Amino acid sequence: MTISDVGGAPAVTTPRRAARLRRYAMTAPTFFAVEYAINPWMDTSVPVDTALATRQWEILLSTYRDLGHAVELIEPIAGLPDMVYAANGALVVGDRAVVARFAFPQRAGEAVAHAEWLTRRGFEPAFTRHTNEGQGDLLVVGSIILAGYGFRTDRRAHDEVAHLTGLPVVSLELVDPRFYHLDTALAVLDDSTVAYYPPAFSPQARARLRSTFPDAIEVGSADAYALGLNVVSDGRHVLLPAAATGFADQLSQAGFEPIGIDLSELLKGGGSVKCCTLELYS
């Protein structure tokens, strides 16, 4: 926000936010299930309603299209229940796609599927030697990449990603296993604005975020624990978990337009709006 002096009285002016049309890829939760537990959100004893997950996912898909964004669909594959979390499959910048190298063998097949899909669409697949989990831990903000490590992506992969994309990478250490991917603890709102949950990061990472983004929105525990930072923004409209009402208020005060999406069934696997959305950065 900015402060102006009109008629002798200071007034707070909310900045104008501009949307930019985006290109996304998504995978339907046709085979979604919680068959194993590889993050603190997953509980194999809790039943999953795949039909409900599909209906919720379809609302997210239609919301993107109603806003004018292009969405391409990646065919789901039986035996890959986490494939609905399309963001984890790659980092796509321009014509280069850095394909994921997953930490857990249960998800390895997703990397193969993503590489084949991206190749068919004219992208050039590239691979890291060390573990990286795509846009789960690699988030583009303007002309830089914020890169998480500590639970899934190997810190050594960050240098590889910088080399493959030509973009500078800022490494951020995650310290709370509930926030095992960067996109569960930090949201990119536009090319210069982020929101994040400070306790999810090491002291050094928090200091780096504060120096790089002095106007960042710091989100409270209630919203973070609803996976409220797992959002997708077009620069104006911010699609976020419906339960993150406090964060929605913060977004409104900052000039964004929050749109709550109920993905409660997919939250059982540890993912929400961003996890389900692979952005194809131009």
UniProtKB/TrEMBL annotation:
<protein>
    <submittedName>
        <fullName>Amidinotransferase</fullName>
    </submittedName>
</protein>
<keyword id="KW-0808">Transferase</keyword>
<dbReference type="GO" id="GO:0016740">
    <property type="term" value="F:transferase activity"/>
</dbReference>
<dbReference type="Pfam" id="PF19420">
    <property type="entry name" value="DDAH_eukar"/>
</dbReference>
<dbReference type="GO" id="GO:0019546">
    <property type="term" value="P:L-arginine deiminase pathway"/>
</dbReference>
<dbReference type="GO" id="GO:0016990">
    <property type="term" value="F:arginine deiminase activity"/>
</dbReference>
